[in-house]
Amino acid sequence: MDDAPSSIDGQAAVDEEDDKLLTEHHVTLLPPHLLRETPSQRDGIAREEEDKHRRWACGLAQEAGILLKLPQQVMCTAQNLLHRFYYRKSLKSYDAFVAAMGCLFLASKVEEKPKRLREVLFAFHYVYKVRTNSTEKMELGGAMYAGWKESLVMVERTILKELGFSFYVIEHAHRFILFYVKLLDGDAELAQEAWAYCNDSLRTDLQLRSKAEVIACAAVKLAAAKLRRTLPSLEKDGVDWWAAFGVDGGELDRAAAEITELYAASPLVWLPSLAPAPRLTDPAFAAAVLARQEAREAEKKAAQEALDRARAEAAAAPPPAPAAAAADERRARSRSRSRSRDRGRRRRDRSRSRDRHRSRRDRRDRSRSRDRTRGRRR
């Protein structure tokens, strides 16, 4: 009994800390203490390895989104959700391939461009086949389809829970690109190149550490440098053009340097999962999921058969004995008489009430008439 208050207090402290973390994720930029160390790093994964899996998962979401003919905004939101998710959970707990599927599926709903679950599954399966040179086929209702479907549904629920069902804090740098290029008297080629740099920046967690305006200015700067364009100043006194947009030069340089580092890394085709077995691509995993589904279907079928047998037995049961039928009839007549008496009693009560009310009204009228007569006589 003495240990109960301490355990309750400990659970309350854990719940309070979890609520605090959820509140901190309801902002566009994450606070520094969350960015300092990720759950994957606490599980012993090096920062370089984690960044590699993040970039790879973002590439999967981008490629599958293109196959599904989704607008770029959906892919941007999916990659933002993925980076936020891995600041709540470790790569050792959730496979990056499955998380990419869940984030893209959820982002299509958030941006009101929903896709059916089977479409997302077949798109990611195509990406998996191309990248691994696999010959496995996914059939609707098959073992692999059942396994992937269950994993996608579960990871989507987890992402929703971990991010607190809040997706209105996401701001993309793409919305500033065309505006900035137009103010700088740029052309369509500059805008297209800056847009491409913005797309590539999504593969890093830069969007959780820097404002969208900073990333947009960094993309425009890199695009102008690649195309060898000279960007004009927006102020007559020679103020740098990015300062006119409220962007600090140091933040701009750091963002541009981080985007540039992406191109020094080697392309990532396929990475083994860091999550424990069973894994999504293992045949044993798909077979286990299909076996569970078949067991659930067998239980439903057995319950339906038992219900049908009970109904058939009730229909085939012999009719009740005459004495029992007569007793039932007497009870029914008694209930009917009782209801009739109750209805008559209520009618009489209403009638008496109306009579009493009418009598009081008549007496009141006669009294008023007498008073008026006496007044005239006087």
Automatic annotation (TrEMBL):
<comment type="similarity">
    <text>Belongs to the cyclin family.</text>
</comment>
<feature type="domain" description="Cyclin-like">
    <location>
        <begin position="62"/>
        <end position="161"/>
    </location>
</feature>
<dbReference type="InterPro" id="IPR006671">
    <property type="entry name" value="Cyclin_N"/>
</dbReference>
<dbReference type="InterPro" id="IPR043198">
    <property type="entry name" value="Cyclin/Ssn8"/>
</dbReference>
<dbReference type="GO" id="GO:0006357">
    <property type="term" value="P:regulation of transcription by RNA polymerase II"/>
</dbReference>
<keyword id="KW-0195">Cyclin</keyword>
<dbReference type="GO" id="GO:0016538">
    <property type="term" value="F:cyclin-dependent protein serine/threonine kinase regulator activity"/>
</dbReference>
<dbReference type="Pfam" id="PF00134">
    <property type="entry name" value="Cyclin_N"/>
</dbReference>
<feature type="compositionally biased region" description="Basic and acidic residues">
    <location>
        <begin position="362"/>
        <end position="372"/>
    </location>
</feature>
<feature type="compositionally biased region" description="Basic and acidic residues">
    <location>
        <begin position="300"/>
        <end position="312"/>
    </location>
</feature>
<dbReference type="InterPro" id="IPR013763">
    <property type="entry name" value="Cyclin-like_dom"/>
</dbReference>
<protein>
    <recommendedName>
        <fullName>Cyclin-like domain-containing protein</fullName>
    </recommendedName>
</protein>
<feature type="region of interest" description="Disordered">
    <location>
        <begin position="300"/>
        <end position="378"/>
    </location>
</feature>
<feature type="domain" description="Cyclin-like">
    <location>
        <begin position="175"/>
        <end position="261"/>
    </location>
</feature>
<dbReference type="InterPro" id="IPR036915">
    <property type="entry name" value="Cyclin-like_sf"/>
</dbReference>
<feature type="compositionally biased region" description="Basic residues">
    <location>
        <begin position="332"/>
        <end position="361"/>
    </location>
</feature>
